[in-house]
UniProtKB/TrEMBL annotation, chain A:
Species classification: Bacteria, Bacillati, Actinomycetota, Actinomycetes, Micrococcales
Subcellular location: Cell membrane
Keyword annotations of the record: Cell membrane, Membrane, Transmembrane, Transmembrane helix
Name of the protein described by the UniProt record: Branched-chain amino acid ABC transporter permease
Membrane protein topology class: Multi-pass membrane protein
Species this chain originates from: Intrasporangium calvum
From TrEMBL, chain B:
Lineage: Bacteria, Bacillati, Actinomycetota, Actinomycetes, Micrococcales
Pfam families: Peripla_BP_6
Keyword Transport annotated: yes
InterPro entries from the UniProt entry: Leu-bd, Leu_Ile_Val-bd, Peripla_BP_I
CDD domains hit by this protein: PBP1_ABC_ligand_binding-like
Keywords tagged on the record: Amino-acid transport, Signal, Transport
Source species of the chain: Intrasporangium calvum
Similarity annotation: Belongs to the leucine-binding protein family.
Name of the protein: ABC transporter substrate-binding protein
Signal sequence bounds: 1-26
Domain Leucine-binding protein: 42-392
Length: 352, 405
């Protein structure tokens, strides 16, 4: 199909397919091999980083549904992660509910809280909505910090090692076993999100983003679309939060501050707004950046000790620069860069 | 054309695979130290330090003290011929970064971990227990002293709660009657650690004190908080925070012309507080500090001062937190030494067993002088000194105070 200039479709079925070219199937196969071999190639430290990335993939995909696809900016990501984490931790540890069910409850709970805090979106747009979601972030932070019964006055929650049925995570195999769990869930999240935008609901989200008045004119129920977008997005984020709780085995509010909300926004901006693949790329990029910087400073540290003294500051600076560079050079992110690379090769020797 | 697309895909993924394996390779190289199996194999220690974060003002000298001790002992040939190979990184007082560093150290096969804050120590305590790595930190939260709850945490100094009790005892005596106490605390697990215990101490001992806690906001001045304390009628302000914000309170008290006395616990009870506030503003305030300041000239200060003089500095310049870091590392090193004496492989478990039976003489610097642990209690020492700021110096009012004395 890619023999001519670009990809052409002769039937609707072929257009609706997720993959159009053989190269894309080939890439899928390679990705699978890479993902399946990762736990045998990577050591525990890098596998740990991979696991954190897999969790942020779920969270970033969720946020991209809201910000990238529906056009409702949200600074409440950290708060929604906290709702998921605290719900699942409390329900599984205090009520003795099995973890898979507690995670499910956390997803539903976060979706409900997300829908509630999404209500201002019915009246507000753009910067005004950003401030309203900022308020939701602060309100949730206030609740998890000040309602003492949540943490029984300790200020943090300890979560038992994951145990499902007769299976318990072993200390020595901790990262590997978690890798499989998180990989499965991350793939599930990506597939669900990818397919969401082939449905009426998903398309109504995009219509709201592109032109809400026009969308209403063609019969999209804007109220419903906006609130559902908040709920669906928060559901994904709740899943990421619940997994954070069980994976790190400690829930403290410090993991869910405004910084985290901004970090997730940075992920989807760097990866590409309005693209599921972009959210994945962004999560990988933002997850690897600090680790690679640490390695780099480790290597250079002996000759430049000032560098290792200032590592956290350096990390912040690099984050900032990365975002600015992406906004200037390619506002549509890594995903768009990847598409352009593919197009260049596909259309060669022609420009387009 | 078809060929080139596929070729590109292969090339890109191959490049990605290469990049990935390069990451893995680099990390395994870094982590391939073989622990302490050889005769003089270096001992790996992971240090989680705050140099640039919210508590960096006191975290930097503490970390310097640890690194100084390591440099000093390595120059003397290390612990029984084993050099200490310390990996110290700044985590900027952020719990997730601390966890990231901790994972790195576990992977690098560190034998023990030196931490810093209350939030991260509490967050990591189940992990260090599962990984069997002895963990000391500069957090003296009560929860960390109970081996049943935190089997691998060791606390060298009197807990924040004990410091608070000592402070309240002193206030009750100093006031000689009914007095209102305002507690200004850092808005974090560290700040909150002694707040509830202080309240129950007041009721339990029937102290004639009013008691109210306020989290300190991150504002340029603390006038708003002082207004609230004034409305409460507070004459004493106990501060559980680091030096810089506490010094701001001292400045604001002077500027507002209020008649209040600050009682600083551990982390603001230092020379930095006096320097930042100015000797004038700091005059007359009181400090509860289990670590003897260099001005107290305890025998344990001599070795540190000698080392620092050889580096063209002095302990008086570095301050008491330097000594604090030094002796925390010293206690850990003594534990490692004892574990090496016992023979067998040097593991976290062996160091824990050794630590549970040691008694380290710190030459009067920490608490009452000695730090000792048992299998039932990881509370290293109990005594704490009380100092008053006079003419820009910390002058001892009472030594070796415990809640019951």
């Amino acid at each position: 199909m890619a023999t001519a200039t670009g990809i052409h479709h002769r039937t609707y079925r072929s257009e609706l397919r997720l993959r159009h070219t053989k190269a894309e199937y080939f890439r899928l196969a390679l990705m699978l091999v890479l993902l399946l071999s990762a736990p045998y190639v990577l050591d525990k430290y890098w596998l740990g980083i991979t696991n954190v990335i897999l969790i942020s993939v779920i969270g970033a995909v969720g946020l991209n549904i809201l910000v990238g696809f529906t056009g409702q900016i949200s600074l409440g990501q950290g708060g929604f992660l906290a709702v998921g984490a605290f719900t699942s931790a409390i329900i599984s540890d205090r009520a003795g509910v099995p973890v898979p069910i507690s995670i499910l409850i956390a997803v539903v709970m976060t979706a409900a809280v997300g829908a509630f805090f999404g209500l201002p979106a019915l009246r507000l747009k753009g910067l005004y909505l950003a401030i309203a979601t900022l308020a939701s972030q602060e309100i949730i932070m206030f609740v998890v910090r000040r309602w003492e019964w949540l943490t029984e006055g300790k200020g943090f929650l300890e979560v038992k090692r994951l145990q499902v049925g007769g299976f318990e995570i072993e200390r020595r195999m901790f990262e590997v076993q978690w890798y499989w769990i998180l990989l499965a869930l991350a793939i599930l999240a990506v597939v669900v999100a990818r397919n969401l935008f082939r449905t009426t609901l998903g398309r109504s989200f995009m219509a709201v983003r592109d032109q809400d008045i026009a969308a209403e004119a063609i019969g999209v129920n804007i109220t419903r679309a906006k609130v559902t977008a908040f709920a669906v997005s928060s559901g994904f984020v709740g899943l990421a939060g619940a997994l954070t709780a069980h994976y790190t085995e400690t829930v403290t509010w410090e993991r869910f501050t405004l910084d985290v909300s901004v970090l997730y926004l940075a992920m989807i901006i760097v990866g590409g707004l309005g693209s599921i693949a972009g959210a994945v790329y962004g999560a990988i990029f933002m997850g690897l950046l600090p680790a690679l910087l640490t390695e780099l400073v480790d290597v250079l540290g002996s000759s430049m000790p000032a560098l290792s003294d200032q590592l956290p500051a350096l990390k912040n600076a690099v984050f900032g620069i990365a975002i600015i560079v992406f906004l200037l050079v390619e506002p549509r992110g890594l995903d768009r860069i990847w598409t352009r690379m593919k197009d260049y090769i596909r259309f060669w020797p022609f420009r387009y | 054309m078809k060929f080139s697309t596929r070729y590109a895909a292969v090339a890109t993924t191959a490049a990605a695979a290469l990049a990935l394996s390069a990451c893995g390779g680099a990390a395994t190289e870094g982590g391939s130290g073989d622990g302490a199996s050889g005769d003089t194999a270096p001992i790996k220690i992971g240090i989680i330090a705050d140099r640039t974060g919210a508590t960096g003002d006191v975290g930097t000298p503490y970390n310097d003290g640890m690194l100084g001790y390591i440099d000093w002992i390595n120059s003397k040939g290390g612990i029984k011929g084993h050099k200490i190979d310390a990996d110290s990184n700044d985590y900027a007082y952020k719990v997730p970064t601390a966890e990231e560093l901790y994972k790195k150290y576990v992977n690098d096969e560190a034998v023990v971990i030196q931490g810093w804050g209350t939030g991260d120590s509490e967050a990591l305590r189940t992990k260090v227990a599962a990984d069997k790595l002895p963990f000391m930190s500069a957090s003296y939260a009560e929860a960390l002293t109970d081996p049943k709850e935190s089997p691998y945490n060791f606390v060298v100094a009197p807990t924040y709660s004990d410091q608070m009790r000592v402070a309240l005892n002193w206030i009750a005596k100093d006031a000689g009657g009914k007095a209102e106490v305002a507690v200004f605390h850092n808005d974090s697990p560290f700040g909150l650690a002694p707040v509830a215990d202080g309240q129950s101490w007041v009721t339990e001992k029937g102290l004639n004190l009013g008691y109210k806690a306020y989290p300190m906001p991150k504002t340029p001045n603390q006038v708003g908080l002082l207004t609230q304390a004034k409305a409460q009628g507070a004459k004493y302000i106990v501060i559980q925070n680091v030096s810089s914000p506490a010094a701001q309170v001292a400045k604001d008290i002077k500027a507002q012309g209020l008649d209040m006395k600050i009682v600083c616990l551990n982390w603001c009870a230092d020379e930095l507080f006096i320097k930042t506030a100015g000797a004038d503003n700091a005059e007359g305030h009181v400090m509860v500090q289990p670590f003897a300041p260099p001005s107290a000239q305890k025998p344990g200060h001599a070795a540190i001062d000698e080392y620092l003089k050889s580096k063209g500095s002095s302990l008086a310049d570095k301050g008491l937190h330097y000594a604090q870091g030094w002796y925390t590392m010293d206690v850990m090193a003594k534990g490692i030494e004892k574990a090496l004496d016992a023979g067998g492989e040097l593991t976290g478990e062996a160091v824990k067993t050794a630590l549970e039976s040691i008694s380290v003489d710190t030459g009067g610097v920490v608490g009452a002088g000695t730090v000792a642990f048992t299998a039932d209690s990881h509370r290293g020492s109990t005594g704490t000194g009380i100092y008053e700021v006079k003419g820009g110096q910390m002058v001892e009012l009472a030594a070796n105070q415990t809640p019951e004395s």
